[in-house]
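Changelog-adjacent note: as of this version, every example in the card shows the full chain rather than a window. The one below runs 337 residues end to end.
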Amino acid sequence: MSCTIIVGGNFGDEGKGKIVSHVAHKDKPTIISRGGVGPNAGHTVMVGEKKFGVRMCPSGFVFPDARLMIGTGVLVDPRVFAHEVEVLDVKDRIFIDERCAIIDTNHIEEDKSNAHLSKKVGSTGTGCGPANRDRAMRVAKLARDLPELKPYLTDVPTEINTALDAGENVVLEGTQGFGISLYYGSYPFVTSKDTSASQMAADNGVGPTRIDDVIVVFKAFPTRVGEGPFSTEMSSNQAHDLGIQEFGTVTGRERRIGNWDGKMARYASMINGCTQVAITGVDHIDSSCFGATEYSQLSKPVKDFLKQVEEDTRSPVTLISTGPEMSQIIDLRDELA
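Full-length structure tokens:
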């Protein structure tokens, strides 16, 4: 039995989707369930030449043997959900907790028209903030109130805990990043709930004593979409000189690029209870490492950087992404055994 939580340690867009996909194929979980806010977070997964951007479905969908679940604490946009079920062809293996709150079209309209959210905070305009407010006010619709969702409804905590009791592997997938947590991020430039590993466990109804590993994903060069402080931010020209230009999966806005922030990484690791670190984008430190699948193929500058990451986070770096494709990764987790 193993229950692993995977969360982001920066401002989102850390490459969690790829890490979840790799861990899923390697560990073969029977359930992959996502926590987090809702469809305001997009995950990009590349398999060969195919590129998938998902907002509601767990990014571990690329592992075909897992049942996919959306935890109790997640907001569901039924339109986005229906689209992804069809495009990803996961109708027979995806489930929603019946207590998930629903995003209505009026939530989206309010999110886009509210000047504070859309202009100052830089909201994605997907309706999550207003929907979470209505959930707190106890007036939101729940998944069990919508007939079109009836075929997908289940009790996610019961499903997950039963699987763990049976000795099966489970992956709990976080969304967004630590730096925009409602509690621990740069308020008010944050999302509408907590994004830490503890929240992902709670979103899925899994008690803290049942968690075996927390993998925190960091980017070698952190990014941020929207407004808010970013202490290590570099200029757009500097980023382009490094060959880095990225756009948000949901908004399409160009991501702001920064240098490694050891102080933030240490704090994120502490609050998330990090047991292992996954690092992405090391090929931007040294392009000669692009696509490497063995630690011995990494250059000295990259190895020196990884050593610094371990010192900052006080946790071992076990997963090293060397490119966007799912196979471009170095997995050192067996060395911890």
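Structural remarks: The first helix runs from residue 16 to 27.
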